[in-house]
DNA sequence: GCAAAAGTGTTAGACCTACACCCATGC
DNA sequence: GCATGGGTGTAGGTCTAACACTTTTGC
């Protein structure tokens, strides 16, 4: 049994949840999966999917399980990574609940069926949700904003953009992901050079895709590289001193 | 009160701690603060400082409080940021305890006095601790390794290196931080150009420091920039495909 | 003067942006 | 042919690594 040291009341155990920010690119927009809450608190409001961490389960496992429950997708097939923990004592009116947010990225996913404590589920364009606070339940506005900036930043330094594309995919598909998530248009020829020169990012399958119109495109699969070297920097937003932004960068070997 | 939904036993509340990776540069090495544990489990082993999150406290507040308790330093004066949560069910033999690791950076700090549940405290060179697993208690080896890679990466994209320098500092001081943490030697003139051209990174004080030998150096304080634009990339370790590394990048506005 | 660290200048090559241009396909 | 997206080439500017060189101090 757990033995508390010191004054017992000072550190009570805490309920821990995971919340998922599931991004996909569909209809020329970055979209996030939302559920309509079927229980109090925030009954009827839109929120990120999530749930309690169960006994004996790691956070990663809880996130993967919730992902499967909410989308019907095998969690192992999607890119899934921990974002950060959110711990404001008043963030949940039921009591002290800390949540660990996860970022999940995938190619166009089916609309999931509503789960046990959700009345409905839908894909929502991310940009339409930001800007006005209080759109989502709890502190999910903040989590979503953090997740968006993480995703945008990760496109620069990692190969996760490929996680948005169903394999096999074309360079045009990949460029579309960058354009939608960054909200810019990119030069097709320069983009091609960069991604094809980054080693182990793209592996040609030898096949081609024949579009409705235009020249057929070479098809690729994801290579084994996870870091994008050299990085593919957004150039548009370096204006100014960067004083209003804080960056945290993490890398594992 | 907290109302559990579903089968009650499936998601019990969990004890939550914060653990601190406190880095400083001293004696030409990156050093981390360790404490010798004065209680079971792992009595007598070296570990990262940390403690339980108290009722009504955010994780940031808990980290800041622990930092003050362990180092005697006003937590608000140090760079402090959340790294990530660690949640292996078996990571602590006392039971289910999740920890959220924090990274703290500061200029040469005093050796702290041992706290209530620590027999001793010391600074240890980081490189001497890595390589062999099982050096530290719990999963603190893993946390330390993650923190080191985060710190190394952050020097590239942010201005946190200045957090290792007591103000006012010289460009040589700053370069020394980069050299020690990256384990490389940098060209002084090119380094100077990069950091002085990065806007709002360094603010000259107008004063100079007169060393034992050599030309006096201009003194600077940290500017308001938190992102380093353009980044100051490590070039030495880009060899290979990057296949063995995973990157997670996060940015806030 | 000499050693040492600060600081400036220069040059060759890498890289990047913008854009012209060619290619392969459906209709 | 023509429209469309795929894909290649290239000139000009920018950035950077490497290193020669000058400056300012203590001794």
From TrEMBL, chains A, B:
<dbReference type="Pfam" id="PF00293">
    <property type="entry name" value="NUDIX"/>
</dbReference>
<dbReference type="InterPro" id="IPR020476">
    <property type="entry name" value="Nudix_hydrolase"/>
</dbReference>
<comment type="similarity">
    <text>Belongs to the Nudix hydrolase family.</text>
</comment>
<dbReference type="Pfam" id="PF21906">
    <property type="entry name" value="WHD_NrtR"/>
</dbReference>
<feature type="domain" description="Nudix hydrolase">
    <location>
        <begin position="13"/>
        <end position="148"/>
    </location>
</feature>
<dbReference type="InterPro" id="IPR054105">
    <property type="entry name" value="WHD_NrtR"/>
</dbReference>
<protein>
    <submittedName>
        <fullName>NUDIX domain-containing protein</fullName>
    </submittedName>
</protein>
<dbReference type="InterPro" id="IPR036390">
    <property type="entry name" value="WH_DNA-bd_sf"/>
</dbReference>
<dbReference type="InterPro" id="IPR015797">
    <property type="entry name" value="NUDIX_hydrolase-like_dom_sf"/>
</dbReference>
<dbReference type="InterPro" id="IPR036388">
    <property type="entry name" value="WH-like_DNA-bd_sf"/>
</dbReference>
<dbReference type="InterPro" id="IPR000086">
    <property type="entry name" value="NUDIX_hydrolase_dom"/>
</dbReference>
<keyword id="KW-0378">Hydrolase</keyword>
<dbReference type="InterPro" id="IPR020084">
    <property type="entry name" value="NUDIX_hydrolase_CS"/>
</dbReference>
């Amino acid at each position: 049994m757990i033995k508390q040291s010191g004054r017992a009341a000072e550190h009570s155990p805490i309920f821990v949840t995971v919340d998922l920010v599931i991004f996909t690119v569909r209809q020329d927009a970055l979209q996030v999966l939302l559920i309509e809450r079927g229980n109090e608190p925030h009954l009827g409001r839109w929120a990120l999917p999530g749930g309690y961490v169960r006994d004996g389960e790691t956070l990663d496992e809880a996130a993967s399980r919730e992902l499967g429950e909410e989308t019907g997708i095998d969690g192992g097939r999607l890119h899934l990574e921990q974002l950060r923990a959110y711990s404001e004592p008043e963030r949940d009116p039921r009591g002290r609940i800390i949540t660990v947010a996860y970022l999940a990225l995938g190619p166009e996913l089916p609309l999931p069926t509503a789960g046990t404590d959700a009345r409905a589920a839908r894909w929502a364009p991310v940009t339409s949700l930001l800007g006005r606070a209080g759109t989502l339940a709890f502190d999910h506005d903040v989590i979503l904003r953090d997740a968006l900036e993480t995703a945008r930043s990760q496109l620069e330094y990692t190969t996760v953009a490929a996680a948005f594309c169903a394999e096999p995919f074309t360079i045009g598909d990949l460029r579309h992901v960058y354009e939608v998530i960054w909200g810019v248009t990119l030069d097709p020829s320069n983009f091609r050079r960069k991604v094809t020169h980054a080693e182990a990012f793209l592996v040609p399958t030898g096949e081609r895709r024949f579009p409705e119109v235009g020249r057929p495109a070479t098809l690729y699969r994801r290579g084994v590289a996870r870091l994008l070297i050299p990085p593919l920097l957004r150039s548009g937003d370096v204006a100014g001193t960067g004083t209003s932004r804080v960056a945290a960068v993490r890398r594992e070997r």
